[in-house]
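Input record, target 12 of the design panel.
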């Protein structure tokens, strides 16, 4: 018999296995902790950057709005009233003197429009060393008729912001100008007679942006729509560099990509690698657009400063881990030796037993632990070995058979578990996707009305003593419409939830559906500033039904809102209600964008929106809620649609709902 002599001792294997296992676990824990902590830091950086940038953007926006209001109001006055030269200069003095944000202002007229004996007339008032100074821009050298701040609003026929420029001969500073055309009716035609402006100094913008401080070396900067640097820590680059020039000088393709996105008005967060002359490190950059004039604000975050403490802590943890592993290795070596020494002696005896030398003496093991028990078992085994051989053979055969059965059962059970696991994962993924889409939709749809409420409230708060009563009423109306839009969205969510959990309770009452439909349509029409013509018809002046008002409102309002929303203002929407035997028929027809063929199959599902809706906002809930309301009332829905031609939706519901608990199946077809 060949004696097996292990090449590697048990003690070595124990030490190596435990040491490597613990080292691997510690390494995994360290890497996981480092990556999670770094991810959390980066997420906090992004949130902080967004809040910081948006705060500065809101400051800029607030001032831009106040700067725009003044020339717009004065342009309306000049359109109706003719002022003398002294009065116009006094108006300019008031504009500049009473508005800290306005650096300068001018009222520039078309040739010979203000005075038939004077070709140019353009008084300009601006701030100079704490006082107001007035000059005339109506000179041959200045020639304001060819300036961008004059030509652009004149050609477009509307108010615009100019690109930043140095106003040589005027304010003599780097500025940006908001220009408003002045109209007047001449010979029955409304013509532009001049331009009124309000200027803001870029020194003011630099004061706002320069307050952005991120750790030691982080900073913020502002660019125009064309990418020119409006503010920057290095003053010599302001107005002389674009962000594209900066990317080339720093040899950073990532910054060049960010520059393209910033000039397109996009918002984002990115890491850029470059050899920066100011700090020479990798930076994070957050950028966002200023909606009012298309400029963009960026905030630079130095990565090494943000993660410096984390890297230092990581180095300390590594040092402590190495020291601990060394101590652990020594302890494991001592313990393993004490365990394996008696086992080695038992291994030698076992080798002799395998050769048939049953009289080989066993070394005495005085311990009462597992090793001592093992030695006693070896002595007993020597006496019982022969007798047990046959029993072991039989037991082995039985175990083999049992093992075969268990393996077969385990394979079957494993297949079942794997299949069910896959199903659960698919269901969980679908639920998570639905949840994510739902949260994203709610966040997106609430943002617009909430911003409307915020901006209108801010205007009323800041300018209530300047704006007219009819404009105040308009702002209050915007707030009321935004609140109604939010309430409608919340009601849609509540309706879906009640339908999902089966807690819809109907309140049946007698309703004149003709008057009720008109009431709903009037309420909905008031929300749209621009809308198509809506033609209302009915087979009778009075059609009474026994039904639930709330569910009828869901059906009518969702169909009408969709028709108005997706139909151009020069088209028509038709609403017709009639009674046919035991069915009330509601028909909504529009000349809108229609539904693509590939979208028709899923158009009634939650969050489903057509691929051709473009920038028209919506939740994808309207038709799904309509379908469920029709199901609850035991009705049917028919629809047909053709892209760029229009859509027609026909709803048939029972004239009388007798059993409130009945939920007939809805019939959906494209055949009418």
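The sequence produced for target 12 reads:
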């Amino acid at each position: 018999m060949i004696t097996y002599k292990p090449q590697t001792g048990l003690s070595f294997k124990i030490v190596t296995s435990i040491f490597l296992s613990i080292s691997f676990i510690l390494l995994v824990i360290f890497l996981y902790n480092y990556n999670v902590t770094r991810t959390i830091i980066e997420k906090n950086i992004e949130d902080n950057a967004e809040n910081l940038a948006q705060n500065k953007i809101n400051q800029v926006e607030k001032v831009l709005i106040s700067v725009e209001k003044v020339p717009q109001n004065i342009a309306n006055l000049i359109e109706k009233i003719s002022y003398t030269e002294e009065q116009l200069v006094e108006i300019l003095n008031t504009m500049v003197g009473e508005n800290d944000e306005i650096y300068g202002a001018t009222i520039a007229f078309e040739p010979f429009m203000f005075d038939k004996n004077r070709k140019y007339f353009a008084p300009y008032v601006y701030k100079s060393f704490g006082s107001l100074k007035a000059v005339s821009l109506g000179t041959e050298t200045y020639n304001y008729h060819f300036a961008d701040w004059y030509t652009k609003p004149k050609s477009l026929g509307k108010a615009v912001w100019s690109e930043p420029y140095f106003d040589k001969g005027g304010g003599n500073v780097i500025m940006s100008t908001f220009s408003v055309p002045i109209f007047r009716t001449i010979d029955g035609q409304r013509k532009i007679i001049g331009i009124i402006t309000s200027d803001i100094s870029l020194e003011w913008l630099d004061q706002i942006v320069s307050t952005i401080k991120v750790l030691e070396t982080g900073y913020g900067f502002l660019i125009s729509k064309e990418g020119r640097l409006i503010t920057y820590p290095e003053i010599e680059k302001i107005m002389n560099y674009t962000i594209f020039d900066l990317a080339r000088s720093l040899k950073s393709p990532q910054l060049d990509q960010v520059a393209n996105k910033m000039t397109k008005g996009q918002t984002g967060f990115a890491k850029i690698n470059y050899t920066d002359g100011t700090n020479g490190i990798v930076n994070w950059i957050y950028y966002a657009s200023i909606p009012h004039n298309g400029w963009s604000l960026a905030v630079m975050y130095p990565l090494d400063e943000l993660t410096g403490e984390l890297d230092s802590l990581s180095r300390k943890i590594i040092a402590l881990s190495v020291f601990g592993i060394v101590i652990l290795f020594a302890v494991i070596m001592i313990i393993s030796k004490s365990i394996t020494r008696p086992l080695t002696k038992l291994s030698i005896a076992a080798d002799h037993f395998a050769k048939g030398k049953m009289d080989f003496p066993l070394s005495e093991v005085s311990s009462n632990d597992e090793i001592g028990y093992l030695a006693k078992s070896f002595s007993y085994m020597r006496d019982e070995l022969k007798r047990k051989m046959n029993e072991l053979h039989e037991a082995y055969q039985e175990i083999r058979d049992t093992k075969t059965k268990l393996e077969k059962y385990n394979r079957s059970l494993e297949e079942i578990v794997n299949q069910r696991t896959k199903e659960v994962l698919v269901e969980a993924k679908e639920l998570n996707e639905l949840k994510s889409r739902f949260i994203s939709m709610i966040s997106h749809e609430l943002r617009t009305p909430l911003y409307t409420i915020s901006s209108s409230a801010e205007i009323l708060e800041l300018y209530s003593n300047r704006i007219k009563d009819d404009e105040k009423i308009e702002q209050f109306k915007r707030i009321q419409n935004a609140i109604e839009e939010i309430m409608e969205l919340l009601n849609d969510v509540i309706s879906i939830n009640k339908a999902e959990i089966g807690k819809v309770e109907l309140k049946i009452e007698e309703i004149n559906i003709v008057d009720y439909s008109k009431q709903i349509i009037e309420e909905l029409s008031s929300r749209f500033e621009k809308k198509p013509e809506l033609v209302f018809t009915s087979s009778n002046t009075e059609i009474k039904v026994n039904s639930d008002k709330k569910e009828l409102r869901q059906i009518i309002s969702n169909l009408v809102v969709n028709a108005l929303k997706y139909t151009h203002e020069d088209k028509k929407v038709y609403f017709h209600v009639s009674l046919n035997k035991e069915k009330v028929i509601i028909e909504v027809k529009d000349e809108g964008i229609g539904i693509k063929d590939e979208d028709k199959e899923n158009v009634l599902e939650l969050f489903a929106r057509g691929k051709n809706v473009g920038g028209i906002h919506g939740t994808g809930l309207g038709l799904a809620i309509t379908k469920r309301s029709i199901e609850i009332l035991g009705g049917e829905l028919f629809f047909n649609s053709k892209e760029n031609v229009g859509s027609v939706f026909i709803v048939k519901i029972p004239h009388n709902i007798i059993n409130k608990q009945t939920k007939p199946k809805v019939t959906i077809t494209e055949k009418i």
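Residues 205-305 form a domain with the Beta-Lactamase fold (CATH 3.30.450.20).
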